[in-house]
Amino acid sequence: MTDSRLDLVLVNTPIGCLGSGRGGGVELTFRSVIQGLVERGHRLTVVTGRGSKLPRGCSDVALVEVDGEDQPSWQHANSDAPVVMPRHSLLPQLWQAALSRSAHADAVLNFGYDWLPLWITPFLPQRLFHLISMGAVTEVMREAIETLGRWDDRRLAFHTRRQAADFSLPAPAVVVGNGFDVTNYVFQPKGGGPLGWAGRIAPEKGLEDAAAAAAALGDRLLVWGFREDEAYAEHVEATVPSGTIEWRGFLATPELQQDLGLCRALINTPKWNEAYGNVVVEAMACGVPVIAYDRGGPGELIEPGLNGWLVPPDDVVALESAITRCDRIDRFACRQWVESHATYEVLSRRIEAWIRAGLMADGNITAMQ
Ligand code: UDP
Prior knowledge:
The protein is of the alpha/beta class.
């Protein structure tokens, strides 16, 4: 691998602009990668929805903002759902802008979870790389990812091994984890606060189990996040004694980390194969241990006894028992885990290594099947 400067085009998700929060965890990943690659001296063009804000220290990045409507998210699609392309969608606008500016780029990095850029990759002279942000939520996306993987699996990277295991790939997947600017999270040494839960309020996030465990222990559960599914939020609230859940709304990172840091534990109860679990790491960065289901990304991020406890998926009684043991976790060890495994610097080093390896291998790709 050489140390030469790379000329890269980064394409954001077609859901929201950078800073809107609508892109969920992808937004944070995208910002971290921009920040890290800039610090590593690479030349970046960032293509994203209009109104985007770049991370600090990135004034040399060429920002290309385009207009368009949000692409519908795959998160809640049925497994047999078709590919949908709304009129005036941001997706083709982003790719038109990216491809017309990337003739001389070393590579184009895609952060969206969309069929179109995956499908078109083998037919383009540009070298497209895709950081896949979800598991195989639908068959059409599974096939697009697996087909591209058969053509050249080095063009794909995943956040965790468990996420990648959703897909049948010809070789072990490239796994890059995720990365955070730890200076945005203040370490809070004191435990003893309330229980916390953070994430989109939607069925795949399993809030009802965390609420049931808190209720069984006679505890309060503070909940942060965007109420994506209002009926679901109301349903969960009705399943526990009134006052168990304290809705805290969707907060920007500076406020979220301040409140989260006061918690004695974060409860994470995904019902789907969570690709990574940003909130798990954000809590640990504040010194908060995490009690989680041993499912998806959180099952790889938590080292039981070091930065939290894992319990069998969907086992609320085990969750209750683990919550009573959260004071055995050293809060400083949680912070240290993040500093050594999940900073934006670590992430961008892995991203760079992935791109360089993929570029070196270019030319050896197998014929399209
Ligand atoms: N988040 C936030 N404010 C809140 C609650 C959540 O900014 O009040 C952010 C959080 O920092 C995280 C994202 O929402 O980056 C959720 O990402 P995660 O990977 O946990 O789940 P996703 O929504 O991507 O499935």
